[in-house]
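Lab notebook, bench 4. The sequencing result for the construct came back, and we need a structural model before the next group meeting so we can plan mutations. Quick request posted to the team channel:

Model the 3D structure of this chain.
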Amino acid sequence: MRHLIQSPLNRAWLILIGLTLLTTAIAESGVLTTASIALISLLVIIKGRLIIREYMDMKTAHPALYWSLIGYMVLFSAAMLVVAAI
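Done. Here's the predicted structure in token form:
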């Protein structure tokens, strides 16, 4: 079991599973308010950042590329919040 958490990719995978389960639990609770949608959006940004850093190996990429991908996720999440508030 120890070897599962020693690898950064395995650690990222376990974190992604946990965040996905949390997102699913919030979404399936039956009560979708603006606050819960904001929380889900935040979890999506965290998961996306983890995928970009660990699986796409953008840790060493040019900062403009890295931050443009992060910015896209933040912009998309903000758009979802605006649509949910309408």
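Residues 26 and 36 are 7 Å apart (CA to CA).
Will bring this to the meeting.
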